[in-house]
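To: structure subgroup
Subject: Chain for Friday's discussion

All,

I'm putting the inputs and outputs inline so they're searchable in the archive.
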Amino acid sequence: MNISALQKARYDYIPKLPQSLARDVAAISLAFGAPTQAVADQEELREIFRHTYGKPVITFEKGANDRIHRPLKVGVILSGGQAPGGHNVIAGLYDGLKKGNAGSELYGFRGGPSGLIEDSYRELTGSVIDLYRNTGGFDIIGSGRTKIETPDQFAAAFETAKRRGLNAVVIIGGDDSNTNAALLAEYFLERGSDIQVIGTPKTIDGDLKNTYIEASFGFDTAVKTYSELIGNIQRDANSAKKYWHFIKLMGRAASHIALECALQTQPNVCLISEEVAEKHWSLSRVVDLICASIIKRADNKENFGVVLIPEGVVEFIPEMKKLIAELNDILAAHEKDLDALESFSDQLDFTAPKLSGASGSLLRSLPQRIAKELLMDRDPHGNVQVSLIETEKLLMDMAGKRLADLKEQGIYKGKFSALGHFFGYEGRCAFPSNFDSDYGYALGFSAFVLIASGETGYLSSVRNLTAPASAWIAGGIPFTMMMNMEQRHGSKKPVIRKALVDLNGAPFKTFAALRDGWAVQTDFLYPGSIQYYGPPEVCDQPTKTLMLEQPPAVS
């Protein structure tokens, strides 16, 4: 097999473990905290999760564990979008199982949760695992976005787990995937089964976190990859001195990626969706903010710069959110009529009068290519595909038009040339940073300890992440502790609450205190590529977000 030199070197990297996991596995015991409560809707959730609600937080400590050496059969699932470090979660789980008992077996279900429903799997042996250690991607077994939600799907998953003789299922995923894991754990107990379910926190978006889940694996590598690319573009912009670069970044529901990349690179403008929503900024106000930086920099003879844009910002702009909601209703009610109209202008003339006055005017004011995306690019349910809206081009076009008007008025005297970019897939499968390699491995090993100790309904947890890995605190937190009830598809359902950017938190406050200077000055930072070898302050450093949220303890 042909492999790169870096790939070969990464195979040999040995992830660092917390001291509580590095000892003899028979000496890892569980300490239980007080019973927990959900973040909201406690009574409703208590009724839904009658067997798993209110479990205590678990921390691993030194002590005897007479269950750890049992032979186990465990199934593992990768669920949702890829995130660097996933292979190491599986490697940590596998190594833990083998340290517990050499006869333990690990099965990987192919293509996500559908693999469990359809009983499609491969056995993950040592020779297979060794080909994926410390590498990016989810290609060891693939992933998928199928949810186990219908009675038939739950029953099929249960039958597969029984047929394979599984003691436990580990689901590696984000908030929706781990909500699914919580429901599966409850389902198994409701059927009188002792098959356990454990989750691990995965998402590059960074929106699965709380006091006990300080970060999700994958975020560290993704933001460092994007920040390298942004830094490269900033260096180019400062060299050519003639382009404004509008860069859209992953993050539809939360702006953690954009915020972290801004802290790492110091662009001229960075939008934070949560701030846009909190302050009820209109689309025109967002464009004004961008143009203010462009005009001030032009006054300094600097007709170049960089703007960072979260992928989902249009859904946080109140007038755009209202427009999209109205369009979805109209598209659903008049799907056949619209499909019969072949040209965009005909669809626009048909749709605009059916919108409220403000939404109709907004639709007609948008650049034509954006209006086309809203009307003509619909998902299988007939809804607007918000994720396909080229927000960077929308803001580029609107800024260009605004600046042209200001030029006619003599207010703007610069030159404006813009280029658009979208950084998404570039960061999802990168070689994981040392942090994500270590963190993913520790999460997988922790999942093994929870399983071997007989626990179910837990998310693997490793915290104190700004300390050296040896001082990380491993354990587990109950799924239900992170949940609330949300409206989904016309009914209220249990959901792990997404963590949005906290506008009162240290990362945003640090950014807000510095951005006015960045808007005018060229204070770019150039992080460069992820480093795997060298001093810990270079190759093991966590994100700036994590350092600000969880400052290292002063000794």
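Points worth raising on Friday:
The chain has a mean pLDDT of 95.
The domain at 38-218+432-460 is CATH 3.40.50.450 (Rossmann fold).

D.
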